[in-house]
Amino acid sequence: MGMVYSRESWGAVVFARRNAQHPSVLRRVADDWLRALPREKTELFDEVVRRWECTFAMMSVALDGALSARRSGRLVSARQQVSVASELLTRLSVSLVSFCDTLAARGRRVEHLPAVEPLNPDFFRGHMGRGAASWNGLLHRVLFPNRSRFFHKLRILSDTMERLEQEFYAAASDLVTGFSTRPADCWERLDNLHYDFNTCLREAEVVLKSFLRALPADHLAALAADLDAPPSRKRLRLRPRLSGASF
Fold first, then answer.
1. Residue 121 included in any domain
2. What are phi and psi of 227, to 5 degrees?
């Protein structure tokens, strides 16, 4: 199963392996991540990230349990666990996509947006994640203003997380219902999709901290309210519960 990096280690991993084509921008992004925020901004950052991390940790535990059960031949238990993992990932994906929408809307009211680095294809296992990261990197080089780069990264990050979750749901559904003709491939896809979603989660954390640093203090309360609000109806996904399937 893909390693789940802690917030502390993730910053070092991201910035140690970046392609330093723009060293001054890289230093700014790394500095935004490493330097402490003011107290009120730190409290908001910790609160938001704690919610994300809690859901992702539960999802990871469920997926790890499913993979372990499958290896030991307990297929009913494996299917039950993978259905839980899928439901938790859907919940987290909706929250993170809504977060990207919120930052995009709030960012239009902020004069000086933070510098961002593009997604790195080396941080993804799957073709979809690698393709999205490559496209982000290509446009990053031609979108010179920081504002354009910031909004484009949010769009790519949001779309990538949504598509990863959809692929995870599809693979989990095939396993739970027993429709998959190549279950081993489905299990491998789930592991890789988990890894790639983890990459997106860490990127979202870096973007949030950088945005909070650039955000004027008098905008903080409004942002906190937006991040605490439930996702908009267009972001909610009504699907059959996989755990309701018969085994």
1. yes
2. -70, -25
Contact 247, 79 (CB under 8 A): yes
Domain tally, the chain: 1
Find how far residue 125's CA is from the centre of its chain.
14
Q: What angle do CA 133, 172, 239 make, to 5 degrees?
A: 95
Gap between the Cα atoms of 48 and 117, Å rounded = 22
Residues whose CB is less than 8 angstroms from the CB of residue 11 and which lie 6 or more positions away in sequence, other chains included: 30, 33, 34, 206
Whole-angstrom distance between the N-terminal and C-terminal Cα of the chain? Answer: 25
> What distance in Å separates the CA atoms of residue 65 and residue 81, rounded to the nearest whole number?
6
pLDDT digits (tens, 9 = 90+) for 52-96: 999 999 999 999 999 999 999 998 999 999 999 999 999 999 999
**Residue 17, domain member (yes or no):** no
Give, to the nearest 10 degrees, the angle between helix 183-214 and helix 23-34.
90
